[in-house]
Amino acid sequence: MSRIAGCFAAAREAGRKVLIPYVTAGDPAPDQTVALMHAMVKAGADIIELGVPFSDPMAEGPVIQKAMERALTHDVTLDDVLDMVRTFREQDDRTPVVLMGYLNPIEVKGYDRFADEAAGAGIDGVLTVDLPPEEGEDYIRTLQAHDIDRIFLISPTTDPERMAVVSRASSGFIYYVSLKGVTGAANIDTKAVGDRVSAIHALTALPVGVGFGIKDAESAAAVAAEADGVVVGSALVRKIEENVTSADKIITAVTTLLGEMRRAMDARQGVTNKT
User: Fold this and answer.
1) Does pLDDT of 273 surpass 80?
2) How far apart are CA 119 and CA 57, in angstroms?
3) Is residue 66 part of a domain?
4) Is residue 98 helix, strand or coil?
5) What is the pLDDT of residue 178?
6) Is 21 helix (H, G, I), strand (E, B) or coil?
7) Which of 49, 122, 163, 250 makes an SS bond possible with 22, Cβ 3.0 to 4.6 Å?
8) Which range, of 68-72, 171-175, 255-259, 267-271, averages the lowest pLDDT?
9) Cα 64–70–76 angle (5° rounding)?
């Protein structure tokens, strides 16, 4: 069983929902990322989603675009991100880490080399925003051979036939994009989210993590009532931007919000919080 599958299984047994924070690797500086990852785990994160800086992040709203720009001013590369995860693994061999990014850096490195290095670094899953599974046969096969989960997106406009295609290509969990738009956009219709999550569950036994538009403890708890996992990105990255000159303030701001989300999610499920 992969770390991701084990994480969801343990949460399900405990009656909890999985909390998945996203931050951009190297934002605001490369030497701050690993400490922030450890702090998020302590604050209640179950899985960490680590963004790979990219010059054309088409799925991102302005908050995460700026985060990637900040990281790229330090020339943070895919190799640097893998090094960060290796360092994280020196102290934490339990928390799953998912890379979220775009296909170009992986293609430049080559699928075999990337998968080998990612597995060696301790990466558990990869989400490539701009690779549809219908065009990813070699990519999927290569990651599978290295026991790395392939995470793909389903959106509000995905029809049932394509949901089935995405589900068959995926492992670890399905990432449901709750909104029609980029990261950080609009407010979530939790009833609509619940309906779509139910439709996905009818097609696959994989857990469903819901992201986009989760801004605070209330929205995290509402989504947790409908999904297996809650992915939060822009709200945390905004805390980094607001405190960009102080590493200590970044950790305090990010973990405070994350802790509020963890407690609200657990309270909604009737779970005694342990953070």
Assistant:
1) no
2) 24
3) yes
4) strand
5) 86
6) strand
7) 49
8) 267-271
9) 105
> Which amino acid is located at 132 in the chain?
P
What is the extent of the structural domain holding 181? 3-269
Report d(CA 26, CA 24) in Å as an integer: 6
SS (H, E, C) 189-232: CHHHHHHHHHHHHCCCCCCEEEECCCCCHHHHHHHHCCCCEEEE
Q: For residues 240 and 23, is the Cβ–Cβ distance under 8 A?
A: yes
- Overall number of domains in the chain: 1
Residue 78 in any domain: the answer is yes
Q: Edge-to-edge strands of the sheet including 18-24?
A: 149-151, 125-128, 97-101, 48-51, 18-24, 229-232, 208-211, 174-177, 153-154
3-state secondary structure of 179: coil
Q: Is the pTM of this model over 0.90?
A: yes
Residue at token pair 């992986």: 106
